[in-house]
Design brief:
two-stranded antiparallel sheet; 172 residues; 5 strands
Length: 172
């Protein structure tokens, strides 16, 4: 049915959400990846504090902070870690290293969703332009690495909420 809709649609462009549509993670909740950071983050910080709790809370507080200060609807991973560094007193170099580890884990654990990939390939085969969208704090370079790893190519443009400071869910 979806393929028929794509083929018969008068729309020249089809958009695909990146995460959960084209790319999946093997976690119950996407933030579960933060728990994998715990041992290394604890070692780097020299503490036994649960880093996954710091990361979750830090993101929430960073969104509030940047939203209030600049009116941004969305923020980048770099801004989340900058806030975490300042708010929790974590050395900047340590926070940057943990951020890099988070990005590496995202790339490692993401895999292609075959049904999404099939619809993307079909859209391209019937001559539709394809754009990709995502409500995501990961920056474009990291997302492109994930897409490349998953064999997703041929899209025209990527729209990432943190780059445009807008969120997808409200139409921004």
């Amino acid at each position: 049915n979806i393929k028929r809709e794509i083929r018969e649609s008068k729309a020249a462009c089809i958009s695909f959400d990146i995460f959960d549509t084209l790319v999946v993670r093997p976690f119950y909740d996407p933030s579960d990846i933060f728990m994998l950071l715990n041992p290394t983050a604890q070692e780097l910080m020299g503490t036994f504090f649960s880093f996954d709790q710091i990361r979750r809370e830090g993101e929430m507080l960073a969104r509030e902070y940047y939203g209030t200060k600049y009116g941004w609807e969305d923020i980048t991973l770099r801004e989340i870690y900058s806030f975490i560094s300042e708010h929790y007193g974590i050395e900047r170099e340590t926070a940057d290293r943990i951020k890099e580890l988070e990005e590496e884990l995202e790339i490692r654990f993401c895999s292609v969703r075959r049904s999404g990939r099939e619809l993307l390939d079909f859209s391209q085969a019937v001559g539709k332009r394809v754009i990709l969208i995502s409500d995501m704090y990961l920056e474009e370079e990291t997302i492109r690495k994930i897409l490349t790893k998953c064999g997703i190519t041929g899209y025209e443009k990527i729209f990432i909420s943190c780059k445009y400071r807008k969120l997808k869910y409200d139409g921004g």
